[in-house]
Amino acid sequence: MATLTHRPIWSDSEDGLPARSTQRPPESSALVAAHLAGDPHAFGQLVLRYQTRLLNFVYRMVGDRERAEDLVQEAFIRVHRHLHRYDPSRKFSTWLYTIASNLAKNELRNRRRSPLVFFQVIRQRWQGDRRPVDFEDSSTRPDRVYAAHQLRELVDETVGRLAQHHREVFVLRELEGKSYEEIAEIAGCNIGTVKSRLNRARQSFAELIAPRLD
Amino acid sequence: MTCKDFLLLYSAYRDGANPRLTAAMEAHLAVCAACEAHDQAVRRGVDALRREVILPSDDFVERLDARLASGEDVEESFRPHVSPVVASAMAVLLLALAVFASRRPAMVSTAAAQVDPPSVARPVATAGIPFVAFVPGP
How many Å apart are CA A121 and CA A126, to the nearest integer? Predict the structure, then answer.
């Protein structure tokens, strides 16, 4: 069993972290090939590269940080077990996001069957201060910190109120910057459906958030 | 351009695919406060969303490593999901087929219909012992 040892020599720019080397990071497909060829560090590099992005995506989908972490780990476990089935002609990140998206949808489906757990209830359980959030606004002025905190809460709540299939395309496009084609593959629908869902999602988002801004 | 057109085309505008559309939308934004507010709401909300980055726990990789090393079982495939509407439609269809099949007259070939019916014993009450006798059927 390969362990997730990693040598952080490449820029982890996909995680939004500063570059640690001028060496160009390898393609994900090259890391997959290296892992399949027996490189014990390759899978760890893939995890490092995608863990934060995937966590943010799944968290936006399910609204529960701890559960999102579990699901992201499960996605990586599935990838690890089935990496030999990966088709290199497809983009690795799309394959990974498809697995994570399906896990998130399963989670939401199971919650609907178990009415004791609600998305909003889970969100409300969270106190903003307790969330391990890296908020890039470095301003320390209390009024700005408070305003930023309020806006963050509002945005979280608004995204959580979008319909599941709208939320998925909205987050993939606005947060992850995925193309229509990638979103279609991840969401399992055609591009026309992606466009119409995205338009509806943006409209709903604006309608929900606009009355509460300022 | 009307506000209805603006909302209809807003997503394409936001994705910036068409410079002519961008120019037309921005011309409308310059004169329409309601659409300007709509655009600002999306932009401010998305900006706030992008600034909030959730980081994995410090022990994320260690826990994942342990789960991989333990050989933890994961489901091979996702359970197929059938929506309640589709499931109900299928149930109604099956019921209708069952009713249709039960009411339909039995299909008997002409040759089979010409064959004499097999003799079946029929109980006939008689006065003598043993009170009930069996005679061949029609």
Answer: 9
